Amino acid sequence: MKRQPKTLGLWTLTALVSGNMIGSGIFLLPSTLAKIGSISLLAWAFTALGAFCLALVFAKLSTLVRKSGGPYAYAEAGFGKFVGFQTAYNYWIAVWVGNAAIAIAVIGYLTIFFPILSTPLIGCLFAIAMLWILTLINLTGLQAAGTLQIVMTILKFIPIFLVAIFGWWYFHPEFLTHNFNVTPFSNLSVFSHAIPLTLWAFIGMESATIPAENVVNPKFNIPMATLLGTLIAAVAYIASATVIMGMIPMPILALSISPFAAAANIMFGHWGSWLIALGAVISCFGCLNGWILVQAQIPMAAADDNLFPKIFGERNKAGVPAKGIIITSICVTLLLLMTTNPDLNQEFQTIISIAVIASLVAYFYTAIAEIILLKKQAHPVKPSHKIHIILALAAAIYSFWAIAGSAKNIVFYELLLLLSSIPLYSWEYWQKKSN
């Protein structure tokens, strides 16, 4: 079995972490959160704190479990094979469903430049072509995909920080103070509802841990990239969201379909809107490339442990799990073809929400797994480990709170997804024992 060469360094990993987090969400969330009020800025801060606790969990676990797979590897080490399989299964589905959503977001922004893409079939075919171009780049090896990720991440930050920096000259504090909670619900209820919305933008903080076996000096680079990438994204999110809410009156912002473009139009005129649209395209394109890079890594790690079909673990000459990448991209393609039917659009949004909760379940398992692994490593628990246990508990509580704050029907569908992993695990176990 050919292993991939160690080609991922600190800056490539940092670009992977921040690039996978900063996608379409940052360009849409200010409008969504304006329907709640400026209390959502507190949710941003709380989510950033929770995400940083999770990042610290992943950073510590990367030094305890030296293998690829990220959340799967840690859940398997802490809880055993069944929970490991359940985590890999949930997370894998979350990734390829999310990739379909990102591809659709790219097309949405490209319609500003090419209106013909608004035709469902043409837009879908273009999205599929873009998906397979990036898939082919990733099949050539991690180095080419990693280099592209660095370039895309640098470019995507330009429009974001232009708004976050120059927007202060157009800032009106009363837009925030007079619209703290614009809903009829209590502050606590609204705050809890905003948490899973803001967490959507932080999905991907674990990206550096997934291709662990291909990282140069993983003991240093994985934790540092995880923390640095999460910090960069948090600063970009909170700064830009605060500025935009202070630039545009809340009722107008809530109706905007492109809040960053509206802010840029105030600062730079009509050409600013085009700049932001181009930045959004680059952001989503780089985000899609990053997720394609990791989309086959978790099933590959599970296949290496005989928990997924062996085909997911087969590497090509470049050491890439080529068949796993191709199978996953086929799944994305099929999901994209479904979106040509307008009646399925609402269901597709529901599936995306389930994908977010599936990631949260993986985060919850990971945080608890750290506590178990630290206890296994030392008895009694070392004083230096107590801080990590407290942080892991905080991360677990935050993940649980985010799940509880989600819509009840989404939590129900995630329960069905978890239950569906049980017969699949028993089938794979039966096949392994029969062989």
Brief write-up:
With 435 residues, this protein is mostly helical.
Main attributes?
435 residues, mainly alpha, Amino acid/polyamine transporter I, 18 helices, 75% helix
- Gross morphology is globular
- The name of the CATH superfamily reads Amino acid/polyamine transporter I
Instruction: Give me the count of strands.
Output: 0
CATH-derived architecture:
Up-down Bundle
Low-pLDDT stretches: none
Helix and strand succession?
Answer: HHHHHHHHHHHHHHHHHH
Q: Mind describing the biggest β-sheet?
A: none
Instruction: Please give the domain count.
Output: 1
Q: Indicate the percent of residues in helices.
A: over 70%
CATH topology term: Amino acid/polyamine transporter I
What would CATH call the class?
Mainly Alpha
Strand content: under 5%
End-to-end separation in angstroms reads 19 Å
**How confident overall, as mean pLDDT?**
84
Q: Taking Cα atoms only, what radius of gyration do you get, to the nearest Å?
A: 21 Å
Number of DSSP helices?
Answer: 18
| Classification by helices and strands | mainly alpha
